[in-house]
Specification:
238 residues; alpha/beta; Rossmann fold; 26% strand
Length: 238
């Protein structure tokens, strides 16, 4: 069993993809917003995929809320994943897209159906149940993806550059919505970001990845002050 103070533990986790080796070792506090940064190819997506179960560790152990999930199927893990492209099915309406997050067979109770409408209201999309994804703006589609994460009600929320395709105004609004959701649920949020201002605004803790490893892991005030690491220092000035 893991330590209940930590939502995520990676103990000597390693794998090889192509010619690149990855090695991650960390313990991340429960109920925190954790920013994952680093240059392209540093291992950010692999780090997230290991947590979600899309990649399988060749060695080591991954624990989520004290439970060893190293070999557990993604659907059984206590996580929700919001992708950069929001991952909505274009041929299904928003209600169905969100309902699939509750039950892939769409066997929904009355309470489930109410929770979908309530989630849409919380993210500023009341009455959007029968809208098709193609009729929504980029920001609205990302809000729908957040609503799906809300109804799944998992203790860990993973976001891989969820705001990258949005203009600055929308980015700020979505970041504020993310923090509102976090305050309401008390979940643990792990978010990949290439935007230093975003990291400063939303994160409690920072991870800087380099060459497939965690080069810096620190509370955000310490993280932002790490002038001794050239890669991180350059990221924070960008």
């Amino acid at each position: 069993m893991g330590d209940p103070h930590f939502a995520i533990e990676m103990h000597d986790v390693g794998l090889r993809l192509g010619k690149q080796e990855f090695h991650f070792d960390c313990r991340l506090s429960a109920s925190a917003v954790i920013a994952v940064t680093g240059t392209s190819g540093a291992g950010k997506s692999t780090f997230m995929n290991l947590l979600a179960g899309f990649d399988t560790a060749a060695r080591g152990r991954i624990l989520i809320r004290g439970k060893d999930v190293t070999d557990e199927h993604p659907a059984r893990r206590a996580v929700s994943f919001v992708f950069q492209d929001n991952n909505l099915f274009a041929h299904l309406d928003i209600f169905t897209n969100i309902g699939l997050g509750i039950d892939p067979a769409m066997k929904l109770t009355i309470a489930d159906r109410r929770s979908i409408s309530a989630a849409l209201e919380k993210v500023g999309l009341p009455g959007f149940e029968r809208r098709m994804p193609g009729t929504l703006s980029g920001g609205e589609r990302q809000r729908a993806a957040f609503a799906r994460a809300l109804v799944r009600n998992r203790p860990v929320l993973l976001l891989d550059e969820p705001f990258a395709a949005l203009d600055p105004g929308l980015r700020n609004g979505m970041a504020a919505l993310l923090l509102d959701m976090h305050r309401e649920t008390g979940n643990t949020v792990v978010v990949v970001s290439h935007n230093s201002d975003e990291v400063k605004r939303i994160a409690d803790f920072g991870l800087f990845l380099e060459d497939g490893r965690i080069a810096v892991a620190a509370p955000i005030d310490e993280f932002l002050g790490r002038e001794d690491h050239p890669g991180l220092s350059q990221f924070l000035r960008s």
